[in-house]
From TrEMBL:
Name the UniProt record assigns to this protein: DUF4145 domain-containing protein
Keywords: Plasmid
DUF4145 domain mapped to chain residues: 296-383
Pfam families according to UniProt: DUF4145
Organism per entry: Rhizobium beringeri
Amino acid sequence: MGFCPICKTSANLEQPSGGDYRRVECRKCGKYQITGSALSMLETRLPANDKKAVARLSHATRLMFSTTDAEWPEINSVNLDDMLKRPLPTIDRQMANLLVWTAAQLEDDHLGAVELSDEEDLTGVIGTIDGRRVHELISRAESEGLIEFVPDNCISITTQGWARLSATVAEKAEPMMASPAALAVAKVDRIIKAHCNKCRGITNSWVRAEHTVTGNDGPISWSDSFEVLQCCGCDTLSVRQEHWFSEWDEMDYDQYGRMVMRPGIKEVYFPAPTVRAKPEWFDTIADEVLRNVLDELYAALNAGLNVLASIGVRTLLDRAGYLLIGDPRGGFEGKLSALQTGGHISAHEKTTLEAVADAGNASAHRGYTPTVERLGHIVDIIENFLHRAFVLAGAAEDIRKTTPARQK
Ligand SMILES: [Zn+2]
Ligand SMILES: [Zn+2]
C-alpha cells in the first residue's frame, strides 16, 4: 500500500524492478503507471492544495485508461503537461460520464441497480473536483429523469437515461487530447545534472532530445553529442555539447587507489553559462549605445573573454562621460576632470574611475589580461557609476517632483 501520487488517497503502489516507474491502482484515478521523471515533475506542477489541477489530472488519467488498450497506460514527462492542461468536462459531459460508469457496472442488466460507492471515489471517473459535486451531479441527473434512486443508496438508469446513453455512445466518448505530445509513447526522459543559467548552478535537467556522431581514425576515436536540456526546476531550455576525444583521456586513481580512466570530454553550453548576470536596472538605461555596449560586456564576461571585457568597460566609461558632459579636450583625463568639475563624480571616485580607464587602455593597447578577480572589481566600479549616474539620478528627480510640498 501507499499513496496515489496524483490524489494522495491510499492506493496500491508497486515499483517493478528494473524500471524507473511506478504502477498505481487508485480508487479515484484508476490504473496507471508513472515514470520517475513525471513523478519528480509532479512535485512542482501539482501542489496538493490545487484541487482543480488534481481533479484535471485524475480525470485525464481515467480517460487515458478508457481510450487505450494498454493495461497500464503511462504518465510520463511528455504527456504530463498536456494532461494537466486538459480542462474538466462540462456538466453535460459529466452527466454522460456518470451514465457510462453506471452502465459499465450494470453490464447487460439494464434494469438493475448499482450501489453508489463513496462519492469521493467517483470524482476521477466523472471529472469533478470533489465528492460534494458528484453528489450535486447525481441529484441533477435524477431531477432530469436520467437515473432513479433505489434503496439503499443505489441508482438505476431510466429509459430516458438509456436513450441519452446511446446518443452519447454515438457521438463517441470524451476524446483524449490528440496533440502529438499526448500521443508520444512511453519514452522516459533521462535526468542528468547540468548547468542552468536561470537557477545559477547545477540542477537536475531532462534530456529532451539528443544526437551523437562518432568517428575514428585507427586507434584514435572521437564523438560529438548535442543534447537539448530542460531544467527540472525552472523549465529553461539549453543545449549541451559534449566533445570526446580519445587522446584527451587520462588515467587517474579513484578514492580506493584503483586506477580509473577519466574520459577526455569537453563540455560547452549554449547559451554560455552565466558568470555574471546583467544588473536588474539594465533595461532602464535610456541610451541605446550604452545598453548595447553593456550587453556585449556581459557576453564577453560570460564567454571568458577578459581582454575584450576590460576594453568594453573603458568604452562604457567613454560613452557615459560623453552623455553627461559632451566631449571635452584632453582625452580620458580631461573627461574625468570635467565630470568632477561638473559635480557628477567626487575626487575619490575620479581616482577609482582612472584606475578602471587605465586597465582598459592597457588591454586595448598592450593586450593586458586582468585576473578574474580584478575584472570583477572593475565591473563592480563601472556598474556602480552607471547605476548612480543614469538610474538613481532620474529616480531622485522623480522623488523630488512627487513629494508633496511642506505647508507654509
Ligand atoms: Zn489517485
Ligand atoms: Zn533552472
